[in-house]
Each structure stands twice: as structure tokens, then as C-alpha cells.
Amino acid sequence: MTFFFKKIITSIKILIIFFSLCLALPLLLIIYSISSLYLIRFQNLISTRFGHFAANTELYLCEKKMKINTPKQKYIDLFFCYEISNSQLLKMWKKKIIILPRWFLFPFFLLNNFFSKFFKQFKKHKIGFNTLEDFDVHNLYERVEPNLKFTKAEDILANQFLEKFGLPKNAKFVTLNVRDSEYLKALYPYKDWSYHNVRNQDVDNYLLALEEVVKRGYYVFRVGGTPLSKKLTTSNPKIIDYTHSNLRNDFLDVYLPAKCDFCISTGSGVDSIVQIFRKPIVLIFMCPLQCRLFYNNKSILMLRPYVNINENRRLTINEILTPEISKLRTTEDFRSAGINVAENTQEEIRDIVIEMLDSLEGKKKEDLNDTILQNKFYEKLVKMIDEYNKKYRYKTDDFHMIPHPIYKAKIGANFLRNNFNKTNTFT
């Protein structure tokens, strides 16, 4: 009976799609006929993933303002969404772009994609994606003001929530975003995400750094994750595990990273909210070729330890920045190469967070030797990307190739001093 019912539902859906395509076709032909005078374009937003819903859409608007990847004639762009990862983001984007119901716009999008396969001139009706998806390769975040703003009513609502968490008015706060496996499991429970495990970290390794943040007069909100994520093991009232709070909602999921003084992160979708609101970020990450934050002048970055399993030692930065190591992405890739992507020590994390605090508070002093190491790192990175392109470009599936933009992020000073060429036993 259940099988028969599903068959009926599927048949009804097919009929609905068929009739919607029939209704859309004559209108699409009219759109084609006026395209020389006025171009109408269609596209779905990447709305199912929080980070892409934020960053890809923001960069589209930034490129539009700077006239990058835009038509030379008069045009209008129409968007639709599939599943919505965050209702607050949808509400805010609707004020900036035209988002129509999926049932209405999808038939036009589907038909245009079909015709574009046979007639190249119809491809111009597809908006397409940014220069490099959610990579800010044109340094637009630095050159263009944020497109999203909160209303006065939303600010008042947020302050009411912050008071419930114990924050006094105008209190400074930092967000912590530590990636684990639970978010994607909850979102797509039937897919095997174990290949992503190498990207996960233990949130408790950040407690030493968080205590330093609190000493400097900030509150901390742990964001991201799901109720199944590991809880922070702290009794400090100024370190708030918002991830497990019963006050958590879509509005605060956007507001907190948007309004934080800076974010400490291991790399996940929440970072995109921090970026589109032009907030500073400390990132502890892996796979340098895929790092979107190299372009962010408000970032301070640090690599995860790459440990040679047989020799039980950390690879130097010089060893990590090679095409052979940088092409490794999945848990199995690293295992096959005899490399363990380990956790940074609590002291390393504390030091890079202190570097950000000192920078924001005007206490950081520039050191010539550190500047030399920064330049060497990026020289090595650019050289490695060139070598990677020659060896592996178009040979590695679903791998983002990064061009040579103007790199703006800082690499953690202590991390560079201790790991550029030194060989360290891993403990």
C-alpha cells in the first residue's frame, strides 16, 4: 500500500512539472525574443548550505557593484531557492535581490538549461556563479561595504536575547566555531560524511584561549554545530555554549557571528557570516589550497599539524606546501600518505588568539623577522600553486584551483617561527 501511494505521489509530481513546463514555455520564448532589449536571467541560490547561502550571495552582489561578471546591456536577475538553511538570511537577502517562489521560476530555469545545451545564445539567461564561487579572489570584502544590515527592531530584539545570556549593554563578545561531524550528519543523515572527519577538532582544546579572551573583557559564544555536538566543559559564566542553548534560533545564528568583535574558527559555514559582515577571524585550518581566508585582510591563520606517522614528527611548513601534500583532502587521502592531521596544542591556539587580541587593541608590534617569514610563506604558497597546476589541474575531482590574488591574511607569528623549517617531534 505504501509503495502504491508513493507511486501515485511521484506520478502527480511528474504531471505538475510537465504542466508547469508547458505553461512556462511560451513566456520563455517571449523572454528570448526581447533579450536584445532587456535581458532576464535565472538562477538558484545555494540556499541549502548556510555558508554558501551567505558568501556566494554576498559575492554576487559585490561583483555586481564592481561590474564584474555582469551583462553590458540592461538586465534583471531572478533567483529561487531549494531548501532553506536559515530563514533570517532568506529574509535579509529578499531585501537585496529578487527571490521568487521555486514553483514559479524553476520551470523557466529548467527549460533554459535544456535549450542552452543546443543553442549557445540562451546561456546568457543563466546568471551562473561568481568568479570562484565563495572565494573572494578580487578582494571585494575589503573594497565593498557589506550588503546586509540589521534593522533597529532586530538590534533591539538581539539585545533582549543577549541580556538573557547575562551580557550587559554594549558588552564585547567573540564567537567560537569548532567544526565537528554532527552538523552534516543532522542535515544529511543518509550520506556517509566520514571523508570529512579529518577536518573536525575537539572544542575543549580552545578553552585555554577562551579564558584569555575572557580576561581581556570579552564574552564568548560557542556557535555552529548541533545539539549532538560535544558540550564545552567549562563553568565560566562568560563562556556561553550557545550551540546547546534553548534560546538558539535562526536569527541569532546570523546575528552573533555578524556582530562579534572577532571569531575563532576551524573552518565551516559560520565563517561566511563573519566574512560578509567584514569581521576579523582567527582560523586554524588544513589544506592550504582551499583556504578562502587568504584574501581577508582581517584574518590571522594557522595550519593544523601534519604528522608523519612513521617518524612521529610534525612536517615543516616547507614540507606541507608541496603539491603532493596539498592535494590531500579526505581522511583516506591522508591515511594513505602516512600523514595524521593532528590537533594544535592549547598553547598554540592561545598564542594566535592573543595575537588577534593584541592587534585589535593596538598592542601588537610589527617585527621585521616576522614580516620576512610572512613573505616567505606566501612566496612558497604561490610557487606551490604553480607547481600544483602543472601536475594536477583537471586531474583532481571537485578541487578548487586558486589563482594568485593579492593575499592579505596574516599567518600566526609564533606558528611561523616554530614551524617554517624546524623539525619537531610530535607529542
Please sum up the structure shown.
This protein is α/β, with parallel strands linked by helices and about 425 residues long.
Give a quick set of tags describing it.
single chain, 427 residues, alpha/beta, seven-stranded parallel β-sheet, four-stranded antiparallel β-sheet
Overview of the structural elements:
By secondary structure, the chain is of the alpha/beta class. It is 42% helix and 12% strand. It has 16 helices and 14 strands. The chain has helices at residues 2-33, 50-65, 87-93, 102-116, 140-143, 152-164, 182-187, 207-215, 250-259, 270-276, 317-320, 323-326, 331-336, 346-360, 368-392, 413-419, and strands at 39-44, 75-80, 98-99, 173-177, 219-223, 239-240, 262-265, 281-285, 299-303, 306-308, 313-314, 339-341, 410-411, 424-425. The protein has a 7-stranded parallel beta sheet with strand order 6-5-4-7-8-9-13, with helices on both faces. α2 links the parallel β1 and β2 (75-80). The longest helix has 32 residues, at 2-33.
